[in-house]
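User: I'll paste a sequence; please echo it back and then give the predicted structure.

Assistant: Echoing your sequence first, then the prediction.
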Amino acid sequence: MRDQDSDLWKGFMFAFLLFLLSSLQSLFNHQYMYSCFTVGMRVKTAVMGLVYRKSLVISSAARQSCTVGEIVNLVSADTQKLMDMVVYFNAVWVAPIEIALCLFFLWQRLGPSALAGIATVILIFPLNGFIAKMRSKLQVSSHTHTHTHTHTHTHTDS
């Protein structure tokens, strides 16, 4: 009877610790993302200000080579990419470490049976690559359409 009470107590403790650590992880992750978005927004705002300031002082010869639509596109789309880079930069170096640690712990826990999970991960990589290529093509197509639309409006308004 004493052993069952001990096991029950450990079970409740582990459940509470799991809840506590999950809550703390969520709290810290949200704080981290908030900080990254704040820094990213500040970088985006600073670059937008610099581009607008530069667009106001460029010579008329330089204005002929650059349309208003291109400047607006530079400010809106490209500064957003810069902000996204600030926010998600750490994922570039953290993701491979997380994958390696997960595979290591999977091997530690399951032994050779972990090869099924590792094989699944390896087989999914080409699918992710294919989806990323398709998304990239669609994004380029959308960007080209947006550029054409902006260029048409710029020349129509002039």
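DSSP finds four helices and no strands in the chain. The chain has one domain: 2-157.
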